[in-house]
Amino acid sequence: MSGNPAVVMRLVASAYSVAEKAGAIVRKVLHSGDLGIVEKTGANDLQTLADRLAQKSICASLSRHFPKITIIGEEDLPAEEVQEDLIENGQAEDILQRSCPEEYRALKEEELVVWVDPLDGTKEYTEASRCLHLQAVAQKPCKGLDKTHGTALWLLDNVTVLIGIAYGGRAIAGVINQPFYNYQLGAEAALGRTMWGMLGLGAFGFQLQEVPADKRIVTTTRSHSNKTVTDCVNAMEPHEVIRVGGAGNKIIQLIEGKASAYVFASPGCKKWDTCAPEAILHAVGGQLTDMCGNAYRYNADVKHMNSAGVLATLRNHDYYVSRVPQSVLQALKSD
Known about the structure:
This protein has 335 residues and is α+β, with helices and mostly antiparallel strands. It contains 9 helices and 13 strands. The longest helix is centred in the N-terminal third of the chain and has 26 residues, at 7-32.
């Protein structure tokens, strides 16, 4: 480490290592076969042991090294002592070596807000676990690892760990861990990857790609659709619609050239779903707004629900905003 890195750079470096720790926890719980599932508000809003342990690990680890930051996690967990084996003390050396953008060099801990989704795509995580259980009972692998063969293992792609960092209400840095990246390659593959981004620095850990300019591919919700969502997606006149889980996963589709717009005209998404992905998307020139084109705020005291939906693009954001039907705008309340 050279010199004395700025607080925000140390926080991002810690978040990177903590996200990798959380990803390992998510994998371990899946392979244990005991997910410890509880329903929070219904069958489409689940919490697992992985959600609970990963959030404890993230929040306790960051709080230990940055006691003055505000951390807001998805899971409502009781205050209790966290086991030492859940604590991650490491920091990504590559991030510490980078020069902090001038506008963030003097930031103090108490000015930063961290938004945490310990396991984005919980429903898909539980479905993939059931598939793995069935193949274990049958003592043979499921046939195929994709949608065409009717297995749920492809849903592992949907699962992410999200840690977003905000300053002045704006998402300025984010870390996304994909715990099961490379799962298709079998037991010999190194599972997982971590990507991160920061305004003024760029984004790292993936190869930026774009959908061809003459194609409109919309990614939207897999399990939380309704008439308003469907009407809005159709209004975009897409050449293709991809229905998958996880806000983090949908932003990854944008930055890796699998989709040109993420359209979710519903109030189901929360700030911890979008803070980290938004920061990474913005770091490569993209945009994430509500369906009216208004930016979301990530101050500590804002409401958690993204009431006016989510619209994210890598390019041509104004076009997609212009296509949102008035009926959809009237159905959603802008923050």
